[in-house]
Specification:
The complex is a heterotrimer of chains A (164), B (551) and C (104).
Chain A (H helix, E strand, L loop, with lengths): L3 E3 L2 E3 L4 E2 L14 E4 H12 L5 E4 L18 E6 L6 H12 L5 E6 L3 H10 L3 E3 L6 H4 L20 H4 L2
Parallel strand pairs in A: 3-4, 4-5, 5-6, 6-7, 7-8
Antiparallel strand pairs in A: 1-2, 1-8
Chain B lengths: L5 H23 L4 H9 L3 E3 L4 E5 L5 E3 H14 L3 E4 L5 E3 L7 H10 L16 E2 L14 H11 L14 E4 L13 E7 L6 E7 L11 E8 L3 H15 L10 H8 L1 H15 L8 H8 L15 H9 L1 H10 E3 L5 E6 L10 E3 H14 L3 E4 L5 E7 L3 H10 L14 E2 L14 H10 L3 H7 L4 E4 L13 E8 L2 E8 L11 E2 L4 E2 H18 L7 H8 L2 H8 L1
Parallel strand pairs in B: 6-7, 7-8, 16-17, 17-18
Antiparallel strand pairs in B: 1-2, 2-5, 3-14, 4-5, 4-13, 8-9, 9-10, 11-12, 12-15, 14-15, 18-19, 19-20, 19-21
Helix pairs in contact in B: 1-2, 1-4, 3-12, 6-8, 7-8, 10-11, 14-16, 16-17, 16-18
Chain C lengths: L2 E8 L5 E7 L2 E5 L13 H13 L3 E12 L2 E4 L2 H8 L6 H11 L1
Antiparallel strand pairs in C: 1-2, 1-4, 2-3, 4-5
Classes of the chains: A alpha/beta (164), B alpha+beta (551), C alpha+beta (104).
The complex binds protoporphyrin IX containing FE and iron/sulfur cluster.
């Protein structure tokens, strides 16, 4: 089990994290994602591959750095190093709302039941749940709340303007 | 007052059942304490010295009588028969059981109340002027703006895991009764000099705690249509750049300070440029809709005088004192604003019993159009009392111990719960406030001293606002004994200032005398009774006070 | 070596509790006088029992406090812990009001 949810369904994770470029070895086939530095260093090489490509951002990175590359990417991985650290919520919204990213935005790290609702509202659609989380139970988290006041990725308008 | 829509109700119900689930998971052990803590704090639930503590939100300090009765019911049914009104216009219960909290929230939801975001690292309850809508010095009623902010900030998906708590205050009057300068964001309604349009002066980076700082004005004039987009831009900059490596450096005040005011402004403005035309841009129809909830009540056309009232003023000195101290003029002729003092020698500052709450609710219905406000100085307000009703109201308040004539005077002390309740405390604060009140409990003395504020905190977190009191008292633990540090010269009003520590701390049995000495220096040195304590302190400086205290 | 007892908050109620260990069986009491006092290496048994109770979701955040044995029994060494053991040092508001009314 990958303990992984994609678009509100339990799914299997087909992506491989890959950091080994500096060893000069050959690039693996299949779907890989690399840290931002790798991408900045070896952009051209990475683009020669056939498989799909993703980038992992640290939560201190400004997503603007990859805004012109987003069309070539199928995945952006964001990190929630601990539950209390909410920087990636902003990154997700910027990727979607400002830079129009259409691929998967994946949450990794302390991805816990009680954040899924907020993550989804910010545009995250892939969730690598922390090991101790129960994926099928977690699916409920997306619908725990149905009323949202403010615009975010899922809503363009605030509630008070929606119902008019 | 804002009326919940079906969706507002729905949201509360969903929230309660979500929290019920979280509590159940915690009790079953599926959630660790560490993880549950984040959830319970987002619902105002702390684990304190003796028990859990539940903080219930009172949005911008406005309560209906029905809500007040529910607060009384909760105090009786689930607590020990009282509650504590805090400096952030909320109410706290000191003894609820974890198992009961979902039921408490259910009861609250029935009267459109909740504990959402009253704690935790998120946007907290927005506070405002307790005289909003009735003050004579008002430019515009701030409550409609507060309500928009409340909705925007409630479960904001992006800003629910901020570096640290985030507090917003809005004032709509020329006098600042909301302490905007000590909030993460302070909004002051202002009129544009040229167009007469309403907008905001925007303060950022204010806060108390261990590094007190006054907010900086990052925008002199923000059109009201841009209020929420601008707030969103500030929060976004803070969420990305606020420090997360050190909890003591995580507040927005440190970010603004370390980034520099100018640079911080540039960051905010740059972000704002990109979102200012987005869905949060406010239109006329939005204002029209929200202002509709805060229309003036149907005031009667009344003369601004009343014979019975005037007779009692002449014949009853106690009544005259109460009127002099606790009554404020109302924008409407024939009406008055009444402060209910929660500062007696009998109760901890801000504490109210369930019986008092019920009685206050009845008084609000009888005399004040059914509404009550809470103030950041831990008092209550009946905002719409007819002049002719003041004598009767006074009699009833006296019987409830709520008519002490001391508003904004020396015994109107702000005090946090301190070591009697608080797990973070280093010293007790309530007994000190009671000792000071007992010492200076003489009307003529209080009257002669005039406008002066004493605030007490039981630790450096400064929940009692001691930094911005004319006379601030901070309890510290010195090798196992409680000692008290004095700061002088602070202010939380439009002339906001952080007080300065005057010297070494005093023992618990010395601090009341020390306050007495400070007050006597003032009384002896003031130029005339018009010169307030703060004015005199600013003229004299620390020296004469130091001399008297330590010389 | 200081005498110590283990204290914590009860998960369900939030109330202050002290650990009593009888024949290896832990129980939690609100009365500090009933707590098991220990010192030195013997504390380990208390620590283990306390952590066990935490894992079983009976208590939250157990820790050891210094206590003194006096004529009146066990007394916590610090002001904070004395207040935790005995409750707020001020009366509850309604009690204060009641007293003043009776006095009046
Ligand atoms: C009893 C439980 C309480 C706890 C655990 C608590 C905790 C804290 C902490 C840790 C801070 C420092 C925040 C920081 O700057 O990083 C703080 C500040 C503050 N608290 Fe409390 N507090 C409590 C009760 C209260 C009460 C009863 C009031 C109102 C009377 C209050 C109002 C405030 C205010 C106004 C500030 C400082 C202003 C600021 O910088 O935002 N708190 N509190
Ligand atoms: S100032 Fe300190 S003692 Fe007082 S309530 Fe805040 S955290 Fe507790």
């Amino acid at each position: 089990m990958d303990n992984y949810i994609k678009d509100r369904k339990i799914d299997s994770n087909e992506w491989m994290p890959f950091t080994g470029l500096e060893d000069g070895g050959s690039l693996p086939a299949g779907d890989i994602y690399v840290p931002l530095e790798e991408w900045l260093n070896a952009r051209e090489t990475l683009l020669t591959r056939n498989g799909r490509l993703g980038i992992a951002l640290r939560n201190t990175d400004d997503p603007a750095i990859i805004k012109d590359d987003l069309e070539r990417l199928d995945l952006v991985v964001l990190e929630f190093p601990k539950m209390a650290d909410g920087r990636a919520f902003t990154q997700a919204r910027l990727l979607r709302e400002r830079y129009g990213f259409k691929g998967e935005i994946r949450a990794t790290g302390d991805v816990l039941y009680d954040q899924l609702f907020y993550m989804q509202r910010c545009g995250v659609n892939g969730f690598e749940l922390r090991d101790d989380q129960n994926a099928s139970h977690s699916l409920k988290a997306f619908d725990e709340m149905t009323v949202t006041y403010q615009p975010a990725f899922d809503e363009e308008l605030p509630l008070w303007r929606r119902h008019k | 007052m804002y009326q919940y829509s079906e969706q507002d109700h729905q949201l509360l119900l969903e929230r309660v059942s979500q929290f019920r689930g979280q509590v159940a998971r915690r009790l079953k052990g599926e959630l660790s304490e560490e993880e549950f803590k984040h959830q319970r704090l987002r619902n105002g639930l702390y684990l304190q010295l003796h028990a859990y503590m539940l903080r219930v939100a009172i949005p911008y300090g406005l309560l209906s009588s029905e809500q007040m009765r529910t607060l009384a019911h909760i105090a009786r049914k689930y607590d020990k028969g009282y509650g504590h009104f805090s400096t952030r216009q909320n109410i706290q219960y000191n003894w609820p059981k974890l198992e009961d909290v979902p039921d408490i929230l259910d009861d609250l939801a029935k009267v459109e109340m909740h504990a959402i975001q009253t704690s935790g690292n998120c946007i907290r309850n927005t506070t405002s002027d307790p005289l909003a809508g009735v003050a004579r010095d008002e430019i515009e009623d701030p409550r409609p703006y507060c309500e928009l902010i409340r909705q925007w900030s409630t479960f904001h998906p992006e800003f629910n895991f901020l570096p640290r708590k985030f507090k917003i205050a809005v004032s709509g009057a020329t006098h600042d009764r909301a302490a905007v300068a000590v909030h993460d964001i302070g909004l002051r309604l202002v009129k544009n000099e040229t167009s007469e349009e309403i907008g905001f002066e925007v303060y950022v980076g204010g806060g108390l705690g261990r590094t007190p700082m006054l907010g900086k004005v990052i925008r002199k004039y923000l059109p009201k249509q841009d209020m929420l987009t601008y707030l969103e831009a500030i929060l976004r900059v803070y969420n990305m750049l606020g420090r997360r490596d050190n909890i003591y450096k995580a507040r927005s005040k440190i970010l603004v300070h370390e980034t520099g005011e100018e640079k911080f402004r540039e960051l905010v403005e740059a972000e704002w440029e990109k979102i200012k035309a987005g869905g949060l841009f406010l239109r006329d129809e939005d204002f029209k809709w929200v202002k509709g909830f805060f229309n003036d009540p149907a005031y009667e056309a009344l003369p601004d005088q009343d014979a019975d009232f005037e007779n009692l003023m002449l014949s009853n000195a106690d009544f005259a004192r109460w009127v002099d101290k606790n009554i404020e003029l109302h924008k409407q002729s024939g009406y008055r604003i009444v402060y209910l003092s929660l500062k007696t020698a009998l109760q901890p500052p801000g504490d109210v019993t369930a019986d008092q709450m019920d009685a206050i609710a009845d008084l609000a219905d009888k005399y004040s159009l059914g509404h009550i406000r809470t103030t950041h100085r831990q008092n209550l307000v009946l905002s719409d009392v007819q002049l002719k009703d003041l004598p009767a109201l006074w009699e009833e308040l006296k019987a409830l111990d709520l008519a002490t004539p001391n508003y904004n005077h020396v015994t109107d002390i702000i005090s946090c719960p301190g070591l009697d309740y608080c797990a973070l405390a280093t010293a007790r604060s309530i007994p000190i406030s009671q000792a000071i009140t007992a010492r200076f409990d003489d009307y003529d003395f209080i009257n002669d001293l005039g406008d002066v504020s004493i605030n007490i905190s039981g630790c450096i977190n400064a929940c009692g606002h001691h930094h911005v009191a004319n006379i601030g008292i901070l309890g510290v633990n010195k090798k196992g004994t409680e000692v008290y540090q004095l700061t002088l010269g602070g202010s939380a009003r439009e002339d906001a200032a952080i007080g300065k520590i005057i010297g070494p701390a005093f023992e618990a049995d010395e601090i009341v005398d020390a306050v007495g000495k400070v007050l006597s220096v003032y009384l002896e040195s003031r130029e005339d009774p018009e010169e307030t304590f703060l004015m005199a302190y600013r003229r004299l400086g620390q020296a004469p006070f130091k001399e008297r205290l330590y010389g | 070596m200081a005498l110590q007892v283990y204290t914590a908050s009860l998960l369900k109620e939030g109330l202050v509790a002290y650990l009593a260990l009888e024949n290896g069986h832990p129980s939690w009491t609100s009365d500090i006088h009933q707590a098991t006092v220990s010192e030195g290496d013997a504390l380990d048994a208390l620590k283990k029992a306390a952590e066990q109770s935490e894992q079983e979701n009976i208590v939250v955040a157990p820790y050891a406090i210094d206590v003194l044995k006096t004529e009146d029994g066990i007394v916590a060494a610090t002001k904070r812990e004395q207040i935790r053991a005995d409750g707020p040092t001020i009366g509850l508001p309604q009690d204060n009001l009641r007293e003043s009314r009776q006095a009046a």
